[in-house]
Amino acid sequence: MKVSIKRGVLKVDVYGRAGQLSEAHSIIHLFEKTHPRAPVLYISLLAACRIHKNAKLALEIHDELMDSNISLTDDQRSAIVVLTANVYSSIGDHDRSLILRQNLYRNKIPKYSGVTWTEINGKMYEFYAQDIRHPQSKEIYEQLEILHEQLIKLGYQPNESVLTKNEINVEWSIYGHSERLAIAFNLISTPPGTTIYLTKNLRMCIDCHEVSKLIARLTQREIIARDKLRIHYFTKDGRCSCDDHF
Ligand SMILES: [Zn+2]
Ligand SMILES: [Zn+2]
Fold this sequence. Notes:
By secondary structure, this protein is of the alpha+beta class. The chain has helices at residues 3-17, 21-34, 39-51, 55-66, 74-90, 94-105, 137-153, 170-175, 178-189, 206-219; strands spanning 115-120, 123-128, 196-200, 223-226, 231-234. Helix 3 packs parallel to helix 5 (74-90).
């Protein structure tokens, strides 16, 4: 990323987090007077829209980018749509949120390598990151949003170190990791207190590990997750059997 764009992202991020969204938007427009359009600046602003629940601006940005002839990579396109969908989730408009996700993934599920399986009542379910194939996807993302709000109240902050090179914005990407979708699905499908069993083909990322501990405590459910390296046994007091050595 060019230095000027990095600086721009930083500025947009600072103003955005502070809730000065129109100032952040103006910074982007100012930047564009002397530079080519940089979608990454808008992605940063969309993340701020999520924090401050500004769906109007999010949709404006979404339409501005998706309808323009600016060239977007698949990852940028995904980030824009998923972040906008997250903003709608944050204001409780789960129908609109799901429609946005479905439009993006109507023909193909993005090529993420992480997959989580979970067994409920003898039936196996499979989730990819950002998956929308399950018929109860709306309820699953609704549950994720409820969890997100509760985790933020507990002091949770997304861990940016888990960003892979394909994941542009930490929030949109981590939020839809496959194990979280599987956990959310368990929460809406099984009675309170039921243990959640997960199997993941890769190593669980540190952020999902942290979130799983918090969810186990919050929901008073044990979560047993087998990943590529070991079995994590998350207990109701919010700890993991691996003692975070993983
Ligand atoms: Zn993760
Ligand atoms: Zn663990």
